[in-house]
Amino acid sequence: MPDYKLIYFNMRGRAEIIRYLFAYLDIKYEDHRIEQADWPEIKSTLPFGKIPILEVDGLILHQSLAIARYLTRNTDLAGKTATEQCQADAIVDTLDDFMSCFPWAEKNQEVKNQVFNELLTQEAPRLLQDLETYLGDKEWFIGNSVTWADFYWDICSTTLLVFKPDLLDSHPRLRTLRKKVQAIPAIANWIQRRPQTKL
Ligand SMILES: N[C@@H](CCC(=O)N[C@@H](CS)C(=O)NCC(=O)O)C(=O)O
């Protein structure tokens, strides 16, 4: 087994999908959380100046979703067939498109609040409706077993709920899917022992 070191801030953020995968796949890794104050110096040493990165026996991998795909390769979490894999990727990308619209690093709090509010009240309803329709009465988003798309839904929605606690009030199936992911023993265990952070 390679030596894995995950480097990110002390947040769930874009590293959390990687942490879910390590937990579910029962792979040992170092969850290295850096201080904001140390970031400028570390940034200058990184190939693309962004985190998360995953060091695999010292080799640096970047881009959270590329790393997630690397970890799910040859596992059912990726989807069991080529079409299921495409569907899982597409749900992840759909969620990621939305999460990437948020101005996470905006310094002007008023502007930040306004854009967050617009996205959560005007854009989110269509996305949530589409996700609920896609899920239908299935147990998981894709096929008949859990994939990393279900994990990503749980992770993204946990963060969105911080800003809009009633977000899923009219989406019972999406709430049930969150509960199912959070009830998977390895995930439940990780959620219980992970550092508590807002994001
Ligand atoms: N698409 C990239 C985004 C990477 C990214 O923007 N990371 C942010 C933290 S979430 C970062 O490094 N911010 C600090 C900076 O840009 O200096 C991924 O998913 O890994």
UniProtKB/TrEMBL annotation:
CDD domains assigned to the protein according to its UniProt record, in alphabetical order: GST_C_Sigma, GST_N_Sigma_like
Keyword annotations: Cytoplasm, Fatty acid biosynthesis, Fatty acid metabolism, Isomerase, Lipid biosynthesis, Lipid metabolism, Prostaglandin biosynthesis, Prostaglandin metabolism, Transferase
UniProt cross-references to Gene3D superfamilies, sorted A to Z: 1.20.1050.10, Glutaredoxin
Any GO CC annotation of this UniProt entry: nucleoplasm
GO biological process: cyclooxygenase pathway; glutathione metabolic process; negative regulation of male germ cell proliferation; response to nematode; response to selenium ion
GST C-terminal domain: residues covered: 81-199
Cofactor(s), by name: glutathione
Protein name as it appears in the record: Hematopoietic prostaglandin D synthase
Lineage: Eukaryota, Metazoa, Chordata, Craniata, Vertebrata
Chain's gene name: HPGDS
